TrEMBL record:
InterPro entries registered for this protein in UniProt: Acid_phosphat_B-like, HAD-like_sf, HAD_sf, Lipo_e_P4
Keyword vocabulary terms for this entry: Signal
Recorded superkingdom: Bacteria
Signal peptide, first to last residue: 1-20
PROSITE patterns noted in UniProt: PROKAR_LIPOPROTEIN
Gene Ontology cellular-component terms listed: cell outer membrane
UniProt keyword Signal present: yes
Name of the protein in question: Acid phosphatase
Keyword flag ATP-binding: no
Pfam family, one: Acid_phosphat_B
Length: 295
């Protein structure tokens, strides 16, 4: 915009207008000071040796399992077939298709250190527009999850294709591929080894992408940090206690460590919900006994 020729006299009025505003308007609230430390859940996931150890442990278990499956040539993949349910599971057949392992990206293979630093310092919480900016510009501020680079390299050396299935936006495919490469995880090709939200009409649901992949590959391992990285069926369960039971009973309980491998993420996601009534069973609550006089 070109400056208006009246800008000079308008500028002369500004000090008086500003003074009037100060005397008649409530001053804006001061921005809160940044916290002294990141939240405890971020300290754990991004800073602790414990989280690193759990991640390495998960990847080692995945590699051991994958090696056995490559030798054995399984009949079925570990992707639930279309029409299956958690109570009546059925899996996509393998046939003679080449082997693949499917991984989520964020906090499964890649730690979004730059974004989480911003979040921790500002306390703004998740914002779609800021996350979109992060996808586009944050590829240089990521790190691999401990154990991820070794696992991905080892899988490829076994002849297993590593496929990334993430809810990052298809519009940002090139930037996401760069973030994956910057984390030391090699090349990701959109539509071949990189599947993104927007690739089909199902939005953030991942089953459709998994079925597409399982149509071409014998999928011998799934890795993720959310239950939706294994089946969208979990996210159809509204009750927090029922969802937990679905993950630790029946078919799902048999899959953990046997084709499905979960990575720790206490920072965000579908697992962070539930009130006191849902999280703590009525018969398992405790308060200190009332103090007794003389003791």
């Amino acid at each position: 915009m070109k400056p208006h020729r009246k800008a000079g006299w308008i500028a002369g009025l500004m000090p008086a207008m500003a003074l009037a505003a100060c005397t008649s308007a409530t001053p804006p609230a001061a921005m809160p000071a940044p916290p002294a430390n990141p939240p405890a859940n971020m300290q754990y996931l991004y800073g602790s040796g414990e989280a690193g150890a759990v991640s390495i442990q998960a990847f080692r278990a995945l590699l051991n399992y994958a090696g056995e499956q490559v030798k054995a040539r399984p009949v079925d993949s570990v992707v639930l077939a279309q029409g299956a349910s958690l109570d009546a599971p059925a899996f996509a057949p393998c046939g003679q298709k080449p082997f693949a392992a499917i991984f989520d990206v964020d906090e499964t293979l890649v730690l979004n250190l730059g974004f989480e630093y911003f979040d921790a310092r500002t306390g703004q919480g998740f914002n779609d527009a800021i996350w979109d900016q992060w996808e586009k510009t944050g590829a240089g501020q990521v790190s691999p999850v401990p154990g991820a680079v070794y696992a991905v390299d080892a899988l490829r050396s076994m002849g297993v294709t590593v496929i990334f299935n993430t809810n990052r936006a298809a519009a940002n495919a090139d930037a996401t591929a760069q973030a994956i490469a910057n984390a030391g995880l090699g090349k990701a090709v959109h539509g071949e080894t990189l599947f993104l939200k927007g690739d089909d009409a199902t939005g953030s649901k991942k089953d459709g992408r998994r079925w597409t992949i399982a149509g071409k590959y014998c999928v011998i391992a799934l890795g993720g940090d959310q239950l939706g990285d294994f089946s969208d069926l979990f996210n159809q369960i509204a009750s927090v206690p029922e969802r937990r039971q679905a993950a630790i009973r029946g078919m799902a309980a048999k899959m953990w460590g046997n084709g499905w491998f979960a990575l720790p993420n206490p920072v965000y996601g579908s697992g962070l919900k539930g009130g006191f009534e849902e999280v703590f069973p009525a018969g398992k609550r405790w308060d200190p006994p009332a103090a007794t006089d003389g003791k």
